[in-house]
């Protein structure tokens, strides 16, 4: 069974049917549909980081580099005033970002711990300053996307990306597929080996496995998915700028992952929902919202030691009398 925990199954059975209905319930308010779309895109990005840190034990502060790269790659390779095919360019962006991740991963995975954090941060900041200082890419203002891609498959168009509701459903489908993909990956032989490497790398090496290769493949997969999330974000707002590449974006995603429950995968959705929900509420209550936000996050991390997902799992198990 892919979803082996009862709390996880409950979450999936409640969250996705409810998310399917949200555009109909919020038909009169496009703002909230757009806000929920952003949360789903961020959830995909946080999920990819959660897999890397929580499942592979590879702590990085440079994951936002691929998030921003997804948007910039689209601007670089797509014609400025011509609608391209969304599915074809999704493949291009994932393939190019995988290649970039392979080269960077080949270098950074030779380090570990604090050294890996520093080297991933250095790569991300180099990319950030390259695009910030580049006149061709609009400097700190970024670049606008004037024409969104079309989504036809064999002449049949499923989504109109200019329609917020259609775009919402595309992002919901992407989020569901990402969750399913990681669950299949984790349950596969490859996933079990990655788990073994995380728990005891020395013993895995002694058994004859090349742990560098498994870590590199995991890094490439997570980076490609992070780039896909950045590509969706760029299409939603119609622009890309260097803030998507900054280390603060990586740091915020890490906080969302810890809040949701590191390594639980579905906790990435919970962490993003709670973080974005709290930010929205506090922004509308006080101008000093960052102060209260920080206090609430500290409190939640101390109370939910295994994240919100871990708290839910304990609650469900207690109710079942285990």
TrEMBL record:
Return the InterPro entries for the record: ABC_transp_permease, LivM-like
Instruction: Recite the UniProt keywords alphabetically.
Output: Cell membrane, Membrane, Transmembrane, Transmembrane helix
Q: Name one Pfam family in it.
A: BPD_transp_2
User: Where's it found, cell-wise?
Assistant: Cell inner membrane
Q: How does it sit in the membrane?
A: Multi-pass membrane protein
Q: Which CDD domains match?
A: TM_PBP1_LivM_like
- List, alphabetically, the GO terms of the cellular component aspect: plasma membrane
Keyword flag Transmembrane: yes
Quote one Gene Ontology molecular function term: branched-chain amino acid transmembrane transporter activity
Keyword Membrane in the entry? The reply is yes
Instruction: Give TM regions.
Output: 7-26, 32-52, 64-81, 87-109, 114-131, 167-186, 207-233, 253-278, 290-312
Primary localization class, coarse: membrane
Record-given protein name: ABC-type transporter, integral membrane subunit
